[in-house]
Design goal:
By secondary structure, the protein is an alpha/beta fold. It has helices at about 20-30, 50-55, 70-85, 110-135, 150, 160-180, 195-200, 205-215, 225-235, 235-240, and strands at about 10-15, 35-40, 60-65, 90-95, 140-145, 185-190, 245-250. The longest helix is centred in the middle third of the chain and has 27 residues, at about 110-135. The chain binds NADP nicotinamide-adenine-dinucleotide phosphate. Belongs to the short-chain dehydrogenases/reductases (SDR) family.
């Protein structure tokens, strides 16, 4: 879809790349000539598609597992990134999940901490650790995955998750101003309802069908619908004058 050399000689880091949106983003970066350090999720022993294993054998992909539910896991991942790449052209902070649906009056401290640590704190920790390597690149970009729920508040039981995504959206806007003098752009992709394992876990088929009917384009989204937005926001030749923005990918589910 994009030019096969769009990201030639570019070092790209994608978190949450073992499945879903992050996996498709990784596939498309590899198709455009990037070297990708792909965070494949929590487990190192997981089945991965052939394209990723082939790219690993060719040393175009570097596969790293890490659990971001603890600060040590995020720091260990950052150390692996920095021992692989001395400069980073693109950082995609995409790992995240709802963790569970927690009614506001029953939410425990542990559940609150788990949702915030993964979706919010780990983004800050990883970004902080990688900023020097991003500054070392010519025209680097950070793209953070947020969510339609950052604007709508989401559905019952997702209050802390939705608020964490709103935190990341606002953090990204602040960071865009702060890093602009270093030539680093910061933007977000905000998916609507995307058919990945995410909704298999947290939404019933009935809920998904009701959502589908309410979407102006009359279908749920796919990872393939989302991935081009990450590449667009990462490429200085396509979006060099775009920073501090949130790109909504939702079939018109939210128009405002
Ligand atoms: N699907 C949607 O409708 C939707 C809508 C809005 C926003 N989003 C956001 O889009 C991003 C990608 O979601 P997806 O739909 O592609 O979901 P997914 O298929 O469930 O993928 C989530 C990714 O995050 C990783 N992850 C989860 N918990 C982790 C932890 N404790 N430490 C490290 N990695 C962890 C997963 O690794 P494991 O394989 O180890 O679990 C996986 O790679 C997430 O940030 C999500 O919040 C999704």
């Amino acid at each position: 879809m994009f030019h096969p050399k769009l990201f030639e000689n570019r070092n790209v880091v994608v978190t949450g790349a073992g499945r879903g949106i992050g996996l498709e983003v990784t596939r498309q970066f590899l198709d455009c000539g990037a070297k990708v350090l792909a965070h494949i999720g929590r487990e190192s022993e997981r089945s991965l598609p052939d394209f990723l294993l082939t790219a690993e054998a060719d040393r175009r992909a570097f596969l790293v597992a890490a659990d971001f539910s603890k600060g040590e896991g995020t720091q260990a991942f950052a150390n692996k990134v920095l021992s692989t790449f001395d400069r980073i052209d693109v950082l995609v902070n995409n790992a995240g999940t709802m963790v569970g649906r927690f009614p506001a009056d029953q939410l425990t401290d542990e559940q609150y901490d788990a949702v915030v640590q993964l979706n919010q704190t780990s983004v800050v920790e990883l970004t902080r650790a990688l900023i020097p390597a991003l500054r070392a690149a010519q025209a680097a970009a950070i793209v953070n995955t947020v969510s339609i729920s950052a604007l709508t508040g989401g559905s019952p039981g997702s209050a802390i998750y939705s608020a964490s995504k709103a935190f990341v959206a606002t953090y990204s806007k602040a960071l865009a101003r702060e890093l602009a003098p270093s030539g680093v752009r910061v933007n977000c992709v905000s998916p609507g309802t995307i058919e990945t394992d995410f909704h298999q876990r947290y939404s019933s088929p009935e809920k998904l069908e009701a959502t589908r009917k309410s979407i102006p384009l009359q279908r749920l989204g796919t990872a393939e619908d989302c991935a081009p937005a990450y590449l667009f926001l990462s490429a200085p030749s396509l979006s060099g004058y775009v920073t501090g923005q949130v790109l909504e990918i939702n079939g018109g589910q939210l128009i405002c």
